[in-house]
Design a protein that fits this description.
By secondary structure, the chain is of the alpha/beta class. It contains 13 helices and 21 strands. The structure holds pyridoxal-5'-phosphate (PLP) and lysine (LYS). Keywords: Amino-acid biosynthesis, Decarboxylase, Lyase, Lysine biosynthesis, Pyridoxal phosphate.
C-alpha cells in the first residue's frame, strides 16, 4: 500500500461515530471530522463567535416541546425556565403552546419582554422576595406556587384574587443527587404531606381573602430516571386532594406534579421513558380519582432539562495538553467551571469529542480540565480522546443545553460564553459573549 492509499484508510479506521442519544438529533460528523448541527459547521461557529460557545439547536428544542405535548394530550406542559431562559427561548416556548415556570423577577422580566401569555406563567421559589411577588402581581402571573407560611401571609396582604398552588413535599425519594432531591422531608421546599403541614397550610391560604387556591404542586427532584417514583408522588397528591376536600370542603381543580425527567449525558446512562410516564400518569390519575370520588384535576408537568438539554452543546478550544508521566494527561480548554459547574456540583459526567479535523491517532484516556484556579476545575475525567489531541483543537461537549448557560458564573472574571442558535443551516447569536467592559460596568471603582 502506498502512503497515498494508507492515509485515507487510516483516517477511515480512526473516524469515530457520534455517540448515540446524547448529541442533538441533527448533529452529524463528517469524514473530515467536521461536526454539523442543523446544517451549520461547528468550525464556522467557533471562528465566528469564538470559544467557548454554547450552541443550541432550535428545532431540536422545539421538537421536544411538540413530543411532550403529543405524548401527554390534555396535560399542561410548563417549561421550567431555570434550565435555560433567553428571550428567544421564551418566545419559542410561547409559540409551541407550552406554559412557562419562572422563579424570580429576573426570569419573569425575560418572559415579560416577549409578552409571554400571563395565564401560562407559573412563579416558583422557596424564598420569593417582595420584589419577586410584586413583579408577579404586576404582570400578573397566572399562578403563584406558595412555599411557606410567611409567603402566604405576605402575598395575602399584597394580592387581590391571585390564583395560587400549594407546594407540597410528597415524601418520595427521587434517588438522584442529594442537591436536587426535593421530594424528601429533609430539604427546604414545600409543606410536608406526611406531617399534616400541607393540609394545615391549605387552611391558611383559604383564610386569606386575597388568595384563590386552585391546586397543589409537588416536584420530586431533578434527573429522575424511574417513572414509578413520579407515579407514586401523583397518587399521594391525589390522596391529599381528597383529604383537603374532606377537611376543608374545597375541591381543587389543578394538580402540578413537577418535572425532573432525566436525560442521558453518557450513551450508557438511563434515560426517561416518556411514553411509560404518560401511560402510568394517566392510569394513576384515573384510578385514584375514581377511588376517592374526585373529579379529575387538570394536570401540569414542569420539565426543564428534558426539553432543552440535548439540544445544546458547548465548543471549547484546547489551550494546552500536559502529560504527567505515570499519572494522566490533562487536556486544558479555554472554559471550565465558570461555564459548566455541574461536574463540581453534582459529579456530572459528559461525552466529549474532538471535532473540526480528522483524527490521526487512536483514542486514549485523558482528563479534560478548565482554565480556572482550582484543581477541581475538571470538565471530564478519564474520557477517550484521540492520542494526537493538541493545542488549538476544537472539542465539543454534548448535552449542555440545560443548566449550563443558566448556571454560569464569571469566576476569575472570565466573561460568560455566547449562546448561538443554529437552524436551517444558519447560526444566529441569542446572547453575546460577556466582555471585560461588561465585567467592569458594575464595579464602581470607589
Ligand atoms: C419546581 C420545579 N419545577 C421544575 C423543575 C425542573 O426540573 P428539571 O429541569 O429536572 O425537569 C425544577 C427543578 O428541579 C423545580 O424545582
Ligand atoms: N442545576 C441542576 C438542576 C437543578 C434543578 C432545579 N430545580 C443540574 O444541573 O442538575
Amino acid at each position: 500500500m502506498t502512503l497515498g492509499e494508507l492515509i485515507p484508510s487510516l483516517r477511515t479506521s480512526l473516524r469515530s461515530k457520534l455517540a448515540s442519544g446524547v448529541w442533538p438529533d441533527s448533529a452529524v460528523l463528517g469524514t473530515d471530522g467536521e461536526m454539523r448541527v442543523a446544517g451549520v459547521p461547528m468550525t464556522t461557529v467557533a471562528a465566528r463567535f469564538g470559544t467557548p460557545a454554547y450552541v443550541l439547536d432550535e428545532e431540536g428544542f422545539r421538537r421536544k416541546c411538540r413530543e411532550y405535548r403529543a405524548a401527554l394530550p390534555g396535560v399542561e406542559v410548563c417549561y421550567a425556565g431555570k434550565a435555560l431562559l433567553t428571550r428567544a427561548v421564551a418566545a419559542w416556548v410561547a409559540q409551541e403552546g407550552l406554559s412557562l415556570d419562572v422563579c424570580s423577577a429576573g426570569e419573569l422580566a425575560v418572559a415579560r419582554s416577549v409578552d409571554f401569555p400571563a395565564d401560562r406563567l407559573v412563579l416558583h421559589g422557596n424564598a420569593k422576595t417582595t420584589e419577586d411577588l410584586k413583579a408577579a402581581l404586576d404582570y400578573p402571573v397566572g399562578r403563584i406556587v406558595v412555599d411557606s407560611a410567611d409567603e402566604i401571609r405576605r402575598l395575602g396582604l399584597l394580592a387581590h384574587d391571585q390564583r395560587v398552588l400549594l407546594r407540597v413535599t410528597p415524601g418520595v425519594d427521587g434517588h438522584t443527587h442529594q442537591a436536587i432531591n426535593t421530594g424528601v422531608e429533609d430539604q427546604k421546599f414545600g409543606f410536608s404531606l406526611a406531617s399534616g403541614a400541607a393540609a394545615d397550610a391549605v387552611g391558611q391560604i383559604l383564610a386569606q381573602p386575597g388568595l384563590r387556591l386552585v391546586g397543589l404542586h409537588c416536584h420530586v427532584g431533578s434527573q429522575i430516571t424511574r417513572v414509578g417514583l413520579l407515579e407514586e408522588a401523583t397518587r399521594r397528591m391525589i390522596g391529599l386532594l381528597a383529604a383537603v376536600r374532606d377537611r376543608h370542603g374545597v375541591t381543587l381543580s389543578q394538580l402540578n406534579v413537577g418535572g425532573g425527567h432525566a436525560v442521558r449525558y453518557l450513551p450508557g446512562d438511563d434515560g426517561f421513558d416518556l411514553a411509560g410516564f404518560a401511560h402510568r400518569l394517566s392510569g394513576a390519575l384515573a384510578y385514584e380519582c375514581e377511588r376517592h370520588r374526585l373529579p379529575v384535576p387538570r394536570l401540569t408537568i414542569e420539565p426543564g432539562r428534558a426539553l432543552v438539554a440535548r439540544a445544546g452543546l458547548t465548543l471549547y478550544r484546547v489551550v494546552t495538553v500536559k502529560h504527567v508521566p505515570g499519572v494522566r494527561t490533562f487536556v486544558a480548554v479555554d472554559g471550565g467551571m465558570s461555564d459548566n459547574p455541574r461536574p463540581a456540583l453534582y459529579g456530572a459526567r459528559y461525552t466529549i469529542d474532538l471535532i473540526g479535523r480528522p483524527r490521526l491517532a487512536a483514542a486514549r484516556p485523558v482528563t479534560v480540565v478548565g482554565r480556572h484556579c482550582e484543581a477541581g476545575d475538571v470538565l471530564a475525567r478519564d474520557v477517550p480522546l484521540p492520542g494526537d489531541v493538541q493545542a488549538g483543537d476544537l472539542l465539543a461537549v454534548a448535552c449542555t443545553g440545560a443548566y449550563h448557560h443558566s448556571l454560569a458564573s464569571t469566576y476569575n472574571l472570565v466573561g460568560r460564553p455566547p449562546l448561538v442558535a443554529v437552524a436551517d443551516g444558519e447560526a444566529r447569536l441569542l446572547v453575546r459573549r460577556e466582555t471585560d467592559e461588561d465585567l467592569l460596568a458594575r464595579d464602581t471603582g470607589l
